[in-house]
Amino acid sequence: MKRILTLFTIMVLSVGMVCAQTKGTQRKQTTTSRSKTTAKRNTTRSTTANGSSAAKAAPASPQHLVSGSVDGHDYVIIGGIKWATMNVGAKTIAGSYNTCCGDYFAWSETKPRYTSKKHSGDGATFGGWVSGHNQGYSDSDRPSYTSDILDSEGNMKLDASHDAATQNWGSNWRMPTHDDFLKLNDACYVSNSWMVSGPEGTTSTTDKGIYWCTNYNGVAGLLFSDGENQIFFPATSHALNQSLSNVGLSCFYWTSSRLFGDESCASSMNFYMGTGFSNGASQYFGCSVRAVVAE
Asked: Does the predicted TM-score (pTM) go above 0.85?
């Protein structure tokens, strides 16, 4: 097992927010600063490459735990939030990128811009484009959404009609806010988290931490464990223009919160293998959505 190099610094509000402002290149980023912080999350979390702690041996196959179900969709409770076990549009938790990635949405949009997609290797091919979105997820086709609704941190928030989780799964589900991801991090963070690899590699639910799994029942992604429950986020990457690449190497998951002080970006949980976490993406990016129960 190898130690994960960078932990959940994305979710600490005192860290500069990173928003990808990309034109033709997926990882050119600009950093915006944020003045609002909370005392509770005012310290950057990190690890070093050295250390002698060891995680417990990984079992032979993943353990898919379920706390309950709402409208036919399973959830697990971590950090007081009921997280869906699968992405919106997905058919499985893992197993194959074709079935576990689900749909890709521009922020504030509730339907994919493509008519079909098929994953292959670290990318996917799109079968066609919805009328009005012939350039795919392009800088020239930015969403235009404004709202007076605010989340718990004072960020502009999507209303129900622009919430991909609500519109696809019903009113009992919603997209997570930035604060919801913070709570997920707080519930699972420990000083030493580990990268787990190997056939169907995963971590026991008795091992609290945030893990990068290179082969979680056939796919790569992030595993969050609070020591009792766990949730897996496939490495879905993000769609840009008319292409999708880096599947299995990076994660991009939307929140319903717009980045504070930046009208062109929205908050998202991003992770690059070997680089670490960042927060925020241009609103025209095609990113995954993991729903939470609306309570």
From this structure: no
